[in-house]
Amino acid sequence: MLDVSGWKDWREVADFVAWLWADALSEAAELVAADAARLRVEGNVAASIGASIRFVQEEVRYLAVDFGHGSGMLPNGAGTVLRRRFGDCKDKTVLLTALLRAHGCEAWPLLVAPGWHRAVARVQPSTAAFSHAIVTFLFEGKRHFVDPTLFGQSGDLAHLLAPPYGFGLEIRSGSDALIELPERPLAELKVTETFHLDRKQEDGWVDQVLRATSWLADDVRAALVRSGRGAFFKARAEALQKHFAALVPAAAGGEVKDDPAADVIELHARHALPTWGPPKDRPPDFFRYGAHGLFLAVEHLEGPEKRRQPWALRHPMRVHHRVVVTGRCVRKVKIEKHRFSGPGFRYSCDVGSDGAAATFDYIWETTQHEVSPEEWPDYCRERARAFECAGANVATPTFWTMKRGPMMIAATVIVIALIRIVAEFSGAQMRAPQLPGALERQQLERELRTAGEAIQRGDYVAAAPTLEALNRFYKGNADYQRMRAETALQVGEIARAEESLAEARRLGPANDSNDLLDAMLRARRGDIPGARRVLGSVLEREPGDLRALVLMARVLEQLGDPGGAEATWTKLLAIQPRQPEALLHAALIAWRKGDRPRADAMISDAISKEPQPTAALQAAHSDYLAATGRIAVAVPPADRAAALAPDDLGTAFRQVMTHARAGSVGRAVSLARVMTERFRTQPVAWNAFATTSAAAGEYETAGPAFREWLRLAPRDPQAHAGYGFFLSKTGRSMEARRLLEQAARDFPGDALVWRNYGAVLEELGERAASQAARQRAEALLPPEQRAALPR
Questions:
Q1: Could you read off the pLDDT of 107-131 as tens digits, one per residue?
Q2: How far apart are CA 652 and CA 673, in angstroms?
Q3: Neighbour count for residue 510 (Cβ, 10 Å)
Q4: Are 607 and 613 in contact (CB under 8 A)?
Q5: Could you give the maximum distance between any two Cα atoms of the chain, in Å?
Q6: Helix and strand tally (H, E) in the chain?
Q7: What span, in angstroms and rounded, lies between the C-alpha atoms of 52 and 100?
Q8: 35, 119, 266, 557: which could join 565 in a potential S-S bond, CB 3.0 to 4.6 Å?
């Protein structure tokens, strides 16, 4: 823009621009007057003004062509713009001003500063303060403001909305002060998405309704006009397909109901949704979505961690995204209410039920025009914290199942089941089909024992194929089905686990192990409250069931109930005073409470009272010392545990990782290499080898080890987390970002995935997203696991 230094006040600026634009406003007055006559509505001046505004906004194309005259400050004449049917903001302003004057209005151009907004009142008077031009005019004693470059604006003259520019300078001789534009009224956007789920894949659908008012309605109209109605609805359907690949868009697109006088627009579309999972798979056991509708209006964060200038907010604005999930397979959701606020916003997330439907209401409201540079860090932090509560998660299973957790039935269950199965087989209570001979029966027994031994040492990957091969011979045995269910659960075969548990219930409905497996499945799927209910029923029947007590204590910790967890661990210790896991957790609880001498003594005293040293107590002692930050002291008990149980995969892994954390990386790599030789099919061994090789900088070794780990355990979130972090450290940050972004969607409850995702985002400079991911990880980590992570 042309500038002249040394302006004394706004009057000088207004006088100069008025002189500069005088010819443009008066050029071809007859032509403009003729066009005004064409737009005139007899007997209705207001309607004539409205027609002229719409003409300039929608029939004169916005296009800036500058041939150098006036250095971008001099507009083309009104007649020229009218003939060309295109122009920039100055040109369209000059034309609309001339048309309004032809209708008898007092009208003037108004220079505004969208970038400065209201802050333009504090700058030095100058033409350089402004970057945009609009029109102001008087009609029946009331001042109006209109931006001729807007597209799709609606509402009659009485409801004409002023653009959000704060202050402007009226271009007429003698104008000596800035004019304040009126505040915009509240604009609301409500997106309601109703999902009807059908596991039979016959009658599933999603119904979308978008309703906008005020200036947000104008935004929606503009988008409809720019892209065309068909393309607009197609884009909305494609956005939904990113979350639900099986969605079939409606052939007719959608309906539009527009009330320009009230300035309200409503759009409606319904699409077929055969399944909420992959198109060719059976419907998953969980429906997952989130507050995606908010971001149709809520601004996306940009810019650095610190700012020098304010960040403008769309204000005043209220955005409401409502997700309703219906269908016979939909389980009730836990009622939740979350409230957040920060500089410039309020946010709420309400989860509940409406009859048989699960409902999720997300509401975002702005509370001020802008976020100051001083408020910016708080705004980013609080906004990220708020949007952690922006997911919708609904159980839709055939059977109640849950997310993966570090839960397994005590080894005694497997031993008992194995004894029962073999005894049943040998006692001729059941016969293997087509294998009547004793030699064949002995072979089956050996294979079954081999699978049971693999399960006892935690090698579920090795046990799974053997159990599947034996399924046709032991299909009618309830204990075998429970073994198969637990093994399938541990290797990520949730459907197989459900199938085996259902068969076990049919064959032996009164066995408490069925309920323990049910609780494990619920926890695996994320229904921690459901797991708690099942375990509560078991403990009502058998208050001293050690297996149920262990699982209940873990569930209570995941639910954030430290008091309940402590009481459960204490009850377990009263029954079995030297139970290793209970001692470990009780000691950690005492440590966190500040009673450190008692905490230190708990496991040490138990070890001293054992007639023979045990690997389990040594391992618990090592875990306790590591979790309380004494990693060097944790190495000897880890070595002792591995020596006492040389065939135990868990103690071997602990030994490797404790050495690595203590700084003995070379020793850790050697131990991990031995693990892969001894346990070639066990993902934990490749986990240890990949992680320690990467820590030692042996990237050529680590890469194949990570890939082998993923091959053996494709549903292990830690494999994805570890490989993603490795990719970032070897210069493949974008590949790491893609992998971890997908892992965060697949395993939303895994803390390590979110932790490593946050680290990669930080490396890529995405500070706000990184902070949100790290906060998510912190919320998911139990205290002892957080303490055990590298610092």
A1: 999 999 987 778 888 888 988 889 8
A2: 11
A3: 6
A4: yes
A5: 113
A6: 30, 19
A7: 7
A8: 557
